[in-house]
Amino acid sequence: MPPEYKVVYFNLRGRGELLRLLLHAAGVQFVDQRVEFADWPSLKSSTPEGTLPYMVIGGKEYGESMPLARYIARKYSLMGISELDQLNADIILNHIDDIRNAVSRARNDKSLTEDQKKEIEAKAMTELLPKLLRRMETRLTENKHGYLIGNILSIADLAFFDLLETSLKEIHNLLENFPKIREHRKRIETYPRISKYLATRPDTKI
Amino acid sequence: MPPEYKVVYFNLRGRGELLRLLLHAAGVQFVDQRVEFADWPSLKSSTPEGTLPYMVIGGKEYGESMPLARYIARKYSLMGISELDQLNADIILNHIDDIRNAVSRARNDKSLTEDQKKEIEAKAMTELLPKLLRRMETRLTENKHGYLIGNILSIADLAFFDLLETSLKEIHNLLENFPKIREHRKRIETYPRISKYLATRPDTKI
């Protein structure tokens, strides 16, 4: 029987990597289909939302990365255990998504001037990201279990880990004053199913 | 015992109304606290995210409207029953939120020029909204139960109903070609706990 899931995205981490990390963490087999940029124009109109990533689940196609991420997380107990844990995980996801959206607007929104793009990216990197880092450092200091939510790995841990991957390539001392976040990254990197994937995934810039 | 929940928002529908609708639909008592604009500057720094709405749940404060809406929906079986229903509900919420975000940017983003604001709002109203209406009309035609997801009321129904409230005040013939959506609105308006709330809530422009 073929795997029940397929994740279709470019050969980038970007908005597709959280889906891949969740499925690996859950230990679920899936097809990790990576689309070439050259093939995208002809593929676009046949995708469920006109965007990537999309997923094939039980033969049907579904788009929109964050609803898909929450779907996998709910299904494989990666959303947090209690109802309030789930709320807290979802709030963290919103903060992460705000930063991703700002960076993506600053890089891709053709209706903006160059000055506006610079302003939006600067705000994301010098206000939103440091604010998130301070919050997460506090959270990891207060939560003695080494995870952002409760005492097990959740979508919040994976989304936060993934967000910093690109920022760390650009700002090497980003975590200089955040020892708990550095420990947290180690914990994710050595999480058995995740470490196996990280060791073999394609190396991409973003 | 005081109600477990408090919803704190301006005296507007806006981003707070979905929380109120969900709690009314669930038949849960809550304090519907409405903040005067004059009081907002002094209140802002003490809110959990620096924004409204926020909620008080069991004595603790939580911000971010969509995570809060999904929290209430999960807790009171308004998120859809099956895992795929929940995914579909969440995808619809994303579409609705995209339109809200575009309109809100067009009205409030001080870094944009007047021309850019007009362009964003025009795109939301002439592209995104009609596309959503066509999708929801199709969904209501295919789903024989009269709801957007499965056979019971869900967060998707309430969020879609709420989104159209403001648009319908501005575009009276918006639903001329969408008979199923008109029926759907009647179904929500006459849903017992909702109809009682709609009859008594403050009348606000947005």
From TrEMBL, chains A, B:
Listed InterPro entries: Glutathione-S-Trfase_C-like (IPR010987), Glutathione-S-Trfase_C_sf (IPR036282), Glutathione_S-Trfase (IPR040079), Glutathione_S-Trfase_N (IPR004045), GST_C (IPR004046), GST_superfamily (IPR050213), Thioredoxin-like_sf (IPR036249)
Claim: Transferase is one of the keywords in the record: yes
Any one GO molecular function term: glutathione transferase activity
Residue ranges of domain GST N-terminal in the record: 3-80
Gene (name only): ORF185015
Protein name: glutathione transferase
EC code: 2.5.1.18
Species in which this protein is naturally found: Arion vulgaris
Swiss-Prot/TrEMBL GO biological process terms: glutathione metabolic process
EC top class, as a word: transferase
Coiled-coil annotated residue ranges, if any: 96-123
Reactions mediated catalytically: RX + glutathione = an S-substituted glutathione + a halide anion + H(+)
